[in-house]
Amino acid sequence: MIFSLKAARWAFSASAIALVTGLAACAPQTTTNTPPSENTSASPAASSAAGGTVSISGAGATAPNPLYQRWFQEYNKINPNVQISYDSVGSGAGVKRYLDQTVDFGATDSALKADEKAKLAADRGKPVQVPTTGLFVVFAYNLDGVTDLKLSRSTFCGIVDGSIKTWNDPKLAKDNAGAKLPATPVTFVHRSDGSGTTSIFTHHIEKACPNWKAGAGKTVEWPVGTGAKGNEGVTAQIQQTKGAIGYTEYSYAKENKLAMASVQNKSGAFITPAPEAAAKALEGAKIPDDFALKVPDPEQKDAYPIVSLTWVLLYENPKDPAKAKAFNEFLKWSLKDGKQYATELGYIPLPEDLSTKVTTAVDTIKVSATK
């Protein structure tokens, strides 16, 4: 399958609405019952509760958390009997809880590996891994007087490997002619927990930085820097530290009004982080059958370079078919009516052809009898 811009009809809003309250918190959040709005109608998920409340729990990636919370909130307005809580603990913890079967669904920004798939108990069937949206990772920074920072590949490589130690380094000065760069030490902020955002970021670093030795994945041995938990924690650490720079998902930096650097892509262009530019990185991409798409260093000349899909993890044979059925209906709603909220918050909605394939995969889940 080809990831098509035309099919997606990317329509990005000129202004984004505020993210849900508590973006800086890592605790699980549960939607509350709210009367349906006048212009919406309840989906079949409401009837699956048979008059009672269906409480669904998930855990995992922090990058899509703002969107997920918004989706849960809006969906609950039209389906008051369906309440979905989500613990924003990072992809590593989310995958573990999914494999341990302590949640109804997991979430990850790093597609499952073969050895992880093999750990799922046989009675749960095959792992069902489906994308929910596209997202992108930015270099956010805290540097007085510098509002339009540019980072060439050699420069951001030097920041993450520790060879660039101060903001007035000659490489940074060359990238930013005319900018008044201070002698302030560079403080690189990275994730301390197992993180799909780290996986996205380090897979790009591995491609872009010839001297990178730490590899790529949800956890790496960082040669330099300060760790923080979750996109929430990295964002807060950057806010609190003069001279800090780190990687976080775009919506976190945007909502917290952090400055974001323009990043040089493979073609040599400096690209300002924006949903439109991020979407170009996915244009024409071939989606594998398990949806585990990777675009660590996109070729497109106008593409922002640090982009990925993000996935939810479901059970082919769920313990509770009623919960699975209700969550499946929520997912179908998110792929259609939920696209407007993805756009508003700065995520990349899935195109129609990919949404159709996701729906087909979700329909393989057995919801007629307890397994």
UniProtKB/TrEMBL annotation:
Domain PBP, chain residue ranges per copy: 48-336
Q: Which PANTHER family match?
A: PHOSPHATE-BINDING PROTEIN PSTS (PTHR42996)
Superkingdom of this protein's organism:
Bacteria
Listed name of the protein: Phosphate-binding protein
Pfam families cross-referenced by the UniProt entry? PBP_like_2 (PF12849)
For this UniProt entry, the molecular function terms from Gene Ontology, in alphabetical order, are:
phosphate ion binding
* Statement: the UniProt record of this protein carries the keyword Signal: yes
Keyword Iron-sulfur included in the entry's annotation: no
Q: Gene symbol?
A: pstS
Q: Name the GO terms of the biological process aspect.
A: phosphate ion transmembrane transport
Q: Name one GO cellular component term.
A: ATP-binding cassette (ABC) transporter complex
Keyword set for this entry?
Phosphate transport, Signal, Transport
Spell out the family assignment given in the record's similarity comment: Belongs to the PstS family.
- What are the boundaries of the signal sequence? 1-18
